[in-house]
Amino acid sequence: MAGHRLLVIGAGPAGLEAARGAADLGREVLLVEATGELGGTPYAHYATLTPHLKGTQDAMQNMLDGVKSHPAVDIRYNTRVVASEGEAGNFRVTLESSDGGRCVETVGAVVVATGFQHFDPGRETQLYGYYEFDDVITLVDAEHMMKEGKIVRPSNGEPPKQVAFIQCVGSRDRQIGNRWCSKVCCGIASKQSIEIKRMLPDAKVFIFYIDMRMYGFWEDQLYWKAQEEHKVNYVRGIVTEILKKGDKLLMKGEDTTMGRPVEVLMDLIILSVGMEPSKGTLEMAQVFNLPREDHGFLATVGEPLDTVTTPVPGIFVAGAAAGPKDIEDSVSMGGAAAAKAVSFLNRLWKSSA
Amino acid sequence: MAGHRLLVIGAGPAGLEAARGAADLGREVLLVEATGELGGTPYAHYATLTPHLKGTQDAMQNMLDGVKSHPAVDIRYNTRVVASEGEAGNFRVTLESSDGGRCVETVGAVVVATGFQHFDPGRETQLYGYYEFDDVITLVDAEHMMKEGKIVRPSNGEPPKQVAFIQCVGSRDRQIGNRWCSKVCCGIASKQSIEIKRMLPDAKVFIFYIDMRMYGFWEDQLYWKAQEEHKVNYVRGIVTEILKKGDKLLMKGEDTTMGRPVEVLMDLIILSVGMEPSKGTLEMAQVFNLPREDHGFLATVGEPLDTVTTPVPGIFVAGAAAGPKDIEDSVSMGGAAAAKAVSFLNRLWKSSA
After folding, report:
1. Do A180 and B216 make contact, defined as CB atoms within 8 angstroms?
2. Which is deepest, A71, B77, B287, B333, by most CB within 10 Å?
3. Looking at beta carbons, which residues of chain A come within 8 Å of B326?
């Protein structure tokens, strides 16, 4: 019966792990993905993964294949969940595909894995000139270039000689309204700085930061490695302004360790943009009446001792829909959500049998 | 048949979640715990949990009760796993209880959740005088006092007027051999600083740190709160020496933001000791022939896309046995390990049927 099925929404690392996990545990899974591709944000936008710098597509291939080839997983690409009625054991969800087709499916439980979107640096921080200067880009723009095996100044296609990362763009910032730390940007910037030095050994690379949040093994896998093997310069400080000077960018700020103002010419500036709840995550909050926690992500009950159970019976969350998460967090939560959703369905149908 | 069972080793947050998760999915679970109590390190040593500051015993009670009362979980207290032979589907493990009794049990798969131990600050860092001065204590010693609802100077039982935390003791330290960041100590010190200010509003509390690693929501839940509501002083700097001066402690170091030396008298100094693989984790590496990764924790395959699968078929890991983890990580991994271990057992017994 259709109410025995699990609906997984979003096919990034968290959703893929939840879908595969539940299918391996014997449940039929309906996996709904808004784009035409599995893999989510890392697969679509990141050339390599943190912390090991392996190519994302190769690294994730097994995960994708495992879900694609699983007989118990029914994948719907280019599809969004637009409405839901009923309750656990009998959610009737309306799916809408990008060509406008609609259908209603019945499922017993749901894992929401709709993830995050990157902070848009144009919205508030006009300060950094993202929409003004071609050579101010984001981490994601840099990954897109790296996917093509290069890193150049967008203004003229030349390799940059001086590159700066600015951390915490749209994170740890009350003025912008994003009070949280986005957790992964220190790691990603460090990873990218290593990649830039590998491609352009003579370039000087700077990372301007408040705190380098390289927890766990990232400390030596990325942070020490960037400094010791690749001579990346970490500068604790604040960047206050970016101006155009000739064909370069003049970065003004303060080195808070040295206690002195900094004015340096850069060829390329990369903004380490943080995480916000994605459009899909906000939509799912509405569709399923899921409360959002203080920061706007989906609320869970019982944290830190339960990371995946929402206050709505039968609905679970995995990955960055619930807050800033790294890939490890997302896949662990995907597996945990699979376990909880499947035992929820097992209990439900046993008790009604 | 006994080979259908799952063995979970260690009953901290990761092991409890793995045991409960697998039992809820219909498997019989043998849960082996070296002490006489469930709950692991947080329950045994921490008065309150990060980040919400709720009492650990209350917060964890449901989790403990769920496992204790589960008909499919067979708990063995005061018991260690001392040997294993055979392989997936037919591990014959020797259990030894603290009274010396031995028995052999057959299980089909294993989740190792033997966790971490706190770095012992006496071993190398005699510098900080942990074994020399009564009023130099660790985070754990502070929690033990907080369990009794107080925070005092061990030397004289008086409440301290000046308290300092020193971060990264036994973490991020190549000389000591612990190159990793222990991930949770910034959060725990900030939590404790709030609790100290609640108990002793007139005390001055300082946290000396390299980087404040308050990822995700800890940023405003703990770090901003400590500063704004409780006037905790965060000092970026290095503490080089602690000396006895009268009945106080003279702390010498450098404030790297202000670029000047610091010499302050303290009544109580709390060392934020990091995580190391526990004795049990090292024992399980031997018993089950599990490879250890570069830092000495249990190795997993496929990270960051798989956090719980070890290279030995049928053996999974959850929580801080695999590296520095917070409680969220541990319970997510516990759930993920349950899902993977149960589907592993299901596949195994289906294919041999």
Report:
1. yes
2. B333
3. 304
